[in-house]
Design brief:
Elements (H helix, E strand, L loop, with lengths): L2 H21 L15 H17 L3 H17 L4 H9 L2 H9 L12 E5 L2 E4 H26 L3 H10 L4 H32 L5 H32 L16 H22 L4
Antiparallel strand pairs: 1-2
Helix pairs in contact: 1-8, 2-6, 2-10, 3-6, 4-6, 5-6, 7-8
């Protein structure tokens, strides 16, 4: 494969994965276990599970919570490969790289269980790295599961119910839409340059093209910011967005919240009495 075609396909794949990983909302409309649950209840239960993930001192509890997130993803109609790609890319892999030095005796002194050249891997280091990576991957899985089974606007509205400042929620919502728009602009700009250049250019010329596009994107975003705000004001915006749909708690929501609390209490009690 030609080098230029390889770069072109790599850029396309990266942009396509980025858009699919962040902006895929079709899973929120599936008929699964979590999709019909009230977003407020889902956020509350996810927070409880994440708190248990952060404070537990049992690898068995961490493993159970991670397997539970995978099971809920499957029961919610989310493809296992689709879910695993979105939970293991970026943050978990980065945390794994951070955890590797903790395996060795110069970071985690203790009884050596394995030697790699002049370095020794200790039992304490294995436990510390396992807890760190386990907490990260479980927390990320729970958050991704929440976002995949909840529509974006409903999720933002539910955050307001928990007292999250309105300015934070609005900035988060606008950034979500802006990122998608700018990814599209980047993709179209790259395609336009590719169609006009037609061959690999000198790296200095490529740097000038990239610099010009960064400046153009900044100016375009600034102008778009003014236009969007003026459009919102002209349509009646006075500081708090008004939603047409309203959350209504149903018996299944209370059943889900009660079941989640019961699981958390049982796991915490089992760890406390050293059953796990």
């Amino acid at each position: 494969m030609h080098k230029k075609d390889f770069v072109e396909r790599s850029i396309r794949s990266a942009l396509s994965f980025f858009k699919e990983a962040i902006f895929a909302e079709e899973t929120a409309y599936l008929h699964g276990v979590l999709q019909p649950i009230d977003p407020r209840v889902k956020i509350a239960s996810a927070l409880l599970f994440i708190l248990l993930t952060l404070f537990t001192h049992s690898l068995t509890v961490l493993s159970f919570l991670y397997l539970l997130s995978i099971l809920l993803a499957v029961l919610s109609g989310i493809r296992l490969g689709f879910f695993l790609k979105r939970t293991w890319i970026f943050i978990p892999l980065f945390s794994l790289m951070i955890a590797i030095p903790a395996l060795f005796s110069f970071v985690s002194p203790g009884e050596p269980v394995m030697s790699v050249g002049a370095f020794h891997i200790t039992q304490h280091g294995i436990m510390a790295a396992s807890f760190f990576v386990g907490r990260v991957i479980t927390s990320v899985s729970l958050v991704v599961l929440l976002s995949l089974t909840t529509r974006h606007f409903d999720l933002l509205k539910a955050l307001r119910f928990f007292g999250i400042p309105q300015i934070f929620v609005m900035v988060l919502g606008i950034c979500y839409r802006y990122i998608y728009l700018f990814v599209e602009i980047m993709e179209n700009t790259h395609r336009a340059i590719r169609s006009r250049v037609g061959s690999v250019t000198h790296y200095r010329k490529g740097q000038r093209v990239v610099t010009w596009n960064i400046a153009h994107l900044w100016m375009r975003s600034y102008a778009l910011n003014e236009q969007v705000y003026n459009a919102m004001v002209s349509r009646g915006f006075r500081g708090e967005p008004v939603a047409l749909n309203h959350f209504r708690t149903k018996p299944r929501d209370w059943l889900w919240l009660g079941g989640s609390a019961m699981i958390i209490l049982l796991l915490a009690y089992a760890e406390h009495v050293t059953i796990l």
